[in-house]
Design goal:
Strand content: 5-15%
Strand order of the largest sheet: 3-2-1-4-5-6
Distance between the termini: 25 Å
Radius of gyration: 16 Å
Helix content: 40-55%
Shape: globular
Largest sheet: 6 strands, parallel
Length: 191
């Protein structure tokens, strides 16, 4: 038995790195997990089915998981990710917004497309996934639900060559704080 028995979690960017480890640990603790990942490269280009590999690992551990390959960077993608949890497991209790890309360049040489891509995945992506989750929690009056948003010291203190990433990550601090205030009456916790 685990501390997350009976819970349903969505983890974005769960095909590799931190997201993968979160998804695996959640499964070990008893949660059913939606493993979201485009399967692209660190800069957001390309695609693949790395989510399938993590789902297979979870199932091998005896856990329950469903893959999702939608982009967090659109409202339709965020809704589709959430709907995967509803279709596969009938509910959702935890959203971990972890998906991210890097397009590092100094402010002197960064292109608008490099700025836009990082802001879209990190900042807009967290919003696109959080909104359907928050609406569901409010409408169904579920309790003990949580959104976890990943920020970075690049946002808090700055990091050379990460104007876009730092701005997006600092924006997540504001998003998380406002979601906590707005969601308080609906039992939505935001970190």
């Amino acid at each position: 038995m685990g501390v997350l028995d009976g819970k349903v979690a969505i983890v974005t960017g769960a095909g590799r790195g931190i997201g993968r480890e979160i998804a695996l640990d959640f499964a070990r603790q008893g949660a059913s997990v939606v493993v979201n990942d485009l399967g692209g490269n660190a800069d957001g280009t390309g695609s693949g089915r790395v989510a399938d590999e993590v789902v297979a690992e979870i199932q091998k551990l005896g856990g329950k998981a469903a893959p999702n390959y939608d982009s967090v960077a659109t409202m339709a993608g965020g809704l589709a990710i959430f709907q995967t949890a509803i279709k596969a497991f009938g509910a959702c209790d935890i959203l971990v917004n972890n998906a991210g890309i890097l397009r590092d360049k100094t402010i002197f040489s960064m292109e608008e497309s490099e700025w836009d891509a990082v802001i879209a995945v990190h900042l807009k992506g967290h919003f696109c996934c959080s909104q359907p989750f928050a609406r569901f929690i409010r409408e169904t009056r579920r309790t003990s639900c949580r959104v976890v948003n990943f920020s970075s010291v690049s946002g808090l203190f700055g990091n050379f060559g990460q104007t876009n990433y730092g701005a997006a990550k600092m924006g997540l601090v504001g998003l998380s704080n406002v979601l906590a205030v707005e969601g308080a009456k609906s039992n939505i916790k935001s970190n």
